[in-house]
Amino acid sequence: MKRLRLSYQRACAAEELPPRAAVLRWTRAALLEGEAQVTVRFVDADEGRELNRRFRGKDYATNVLSFVYDLPEEAGLMGDLVLCAPVVAREATEQGKPLAAHYAHLIVHGMLHLQGYDHEDEAQAAEMEALERDVLGRLGFPDPYADEER
């Protein structure tokens, strides 16, 4: 049985953040099995940049960061997703996507990272993208990769 405990943190002034109920639905849909305790934190560009610099060595704010806790398997999945609201909003506009659809995609993407999925090579990327499409489709969102050429 899948069970999720969600902590929702709003640490920025962005007005158009998804409501907690939507975030809970998206994170739960992306939890493939077991139990999880996840914090989803919405931040401004300064905090997003600082976290990306500190933990990934990249000096810019990125859309989503995933931090999984290294705990024994019996403890269940525990981790944090950090979404940089101004980056997500800019990307949604640039890509011509509804903001909610982009947030849903990034939360699903981040949840898959917490569960060990990655996109370091083509095979991993194809597997992860297929899972994202499946979860997002079940949530009623369009394929986020439909406009990309391979």
Automatic annotation (TrEMBL):
The keyword Mitochondrion does not apply. NCBIfam families: rRNA maturation RNase YbeY. PROSITE patterns: UPF0054 (PS01306). This is Endoribonuclease YbeY. The keyword Zinc-finger does not apply. The lineage of its organism: Bacteria, Pseudomonadati, Pseudomonadota, Hydrogenophilia, Hydrogenophilales. SUPFAM superfamilies: Metalloproteases ('zincins'), catalytic domain. Zn(2+) binds at residues 109, 113, 119.
